[in-house]
Design brief:
Among the domains are: 1-33; 60-98. The longest helix is centred in the C-terminal third of the chain and has 29 residues, at 70-98. The protein is mainly α. The termini are far apart. The protein has four helices and no strands.
Length: 107
């Protein structure tokens, strides 16, 4: 078989599988049309959530991780302090591991 015959055959098989799936869906009563999708009702958005979403979407130059107020700022600063302490601790460990301790000389 050459490439064109293989491609045509695979297209036919794929197309027939799609048609079978669509037929099975129609038989099961699962019609998907644009009109049915437009009829879906969503619950109304909570006003408090809507205000919060609007506050986060304002272009005011504040990074998104700080727009939550004082709690976000405290969490951010605490995270930075913990990262700095860990970094200093790792440098201290590397320094003490690489420099041997001096033995005490007896007088």
């Amino acid at each position: 078989m050459n490439f064109k015959k293989i491609a045509a055959l695979s297209f036919k098989v794929g197309r027939s599988m799609i048609i079978q799936n669509e037929t099975n869906m129609l038989k099961a009563g699962l019609k998907t049309s644009v009109l049915q999708r437009q009829k879906v009702k969503y619950s109304p958005l909570d006003p408090k959530l809507k205000r919060k979403m609007e506050a986060f979407q304002v272009e005011d130059g504040v990074p998104i991780h700080l727009k939550g107020g004082l709690v976000d700022v405290l969490l951010y600063v605490t995270t930075l302090a913990a990262c700095a302490a860990g970094l200093l601790g790792s440098f201290d460990y590397i320094y003490h591991s690489s420099v041997p301790k001096k033995e005490a000389s007896e007088c």
